[in-house]
Amino acid sequence: MDKALTHKRIISIALPVVVSNATIPILGAVDTGVVGQLGLAVPIGAVGIGAIITTAIYWIFGFLRMGTTGLTAQAIGAKEHAEVAALFTRSLFIGLGAGVIIFALQIPILWAAFKISPASDPVENLAHTYLQIRLFSAPAAIAIYGVTGWLIAHERTKSVLVLQLWMNGLNIALDLLFVLKLGWGVSGVAFATVLAEWSGLLLGLWLTRGVFLSGEWRNWVHVFNRLKIIRMMSVNSDIMIRSVILQACFLSFLFLGSELGDVTLAANQVLLQFLYITAYGLDGFALAAEALVGQAMGAGNRQVFRRAARLTSLWGAVGAVLLALGFWLLGGAIIDLMTTSDPVRATAKTYLIWMIFAPIAGAASWMLDGIFIGATRGKDMRNMMIISGLIYALSVSVLLPLLGNHGLWASLLILLVVRGITLGFCYPRLERSLPD
């Protein structure tokens, strides 16, 4: 830890990530908005179902981004330069390999996805078309996780910003061309994403070209070091289990909402964009925590660890309050921009109140995720997610029959709160694991 840990340093790491992450829900809003211009609920629901299934599949492999950040940051803190390069190679191989497997198994994957999805036949048919196209970019989409994780560990968040702006900017431009200009509909949204993701991987490799100048990235003895691989697998497997449970909760939210009708499904998809804006906005500070906490762990410095955790969490709390105020003041206008369907607009505004509370409810869970990822404490994250998932399931079983869609949204916010509380109980033990 050679540089002082100041507010300025945290902002320099977090701000580019906040800006780059903000383009992701903006992209989701554009995806929803371009099909929303058709004035029908079915295409909106189809893009929503297809996008969340794809996101769920890919984010099962989100462990690659998180594990790469934590392990690389610790290697940087410990000044293990050969391991830093080897982690890049391992993460790239894992990402490409996982994507090829997903593409090869798309038939059973899509069958299983739609088996558990109770969406109407028109929505399901359009969503199936969307997914068949989207999975062509699975290797690129998953490999990008490893590339961005490695960059974040180096505090190179400006490079992450460049990558996301290029990828999402191209995606938005192609959305407008393929859907509004050429009239390709839902298929056009999918094709736009495929082209953007493959171009994003190529750009990511160019941004990390410095690692290729070192022979360590292809030092196969080091890259395939048995003990290093076992540690990486242990950390990543725990984070993967955590991610699977979290995605199962979000998938169940969408599928349970679809049972309430196509209009409610479309309204929930619109409102989910608010939740994505919150998650990606606060992730800027959570990712700063990952890098700084990871480096402190690698250096074995409890004082710097504590300061990194506290300062990044302070900025996360400020961000949560600002987001809640923004949703309160501008939520209705944002909904109107996303769809021209009057029934969807009215339904979404009915449940907007939950989006105002979401940033406050989720702030602790997002920030503690960053801290525990940087510390590579995947086991704690896994165990606390199991507890949180069980409480979410209980909440849904009680509140959905009583309150309908309000009960569904209440259960989702309960999940966010419980995740923060359970990880909070684990934090003191984590801090004590470092020497004074």
List keywords for this structure.
436 residues; 87% helix; 18 helices; globular; mainly alpha
- Helix/strand/pairing class, anyone? mainly alpha
Please tell me how large the radius of gyration is: 21 Å
Average pLDDT score: 88
How many angstroms does the end-to-end distance come to?
16 Å
The outline comes out as globular
Percent range of helical residues: over 70%
Enumerate how many helices there are, as a single number.
18
Helix-strand string: HHHHHHHHHHHHHHHHHH
- Tally of strands: 0
The main sheet comes to: none
Low-confidence stretches: none
Strand proportion, as a percent range, falls in under 5%
Total number of distinct structural domains: 1
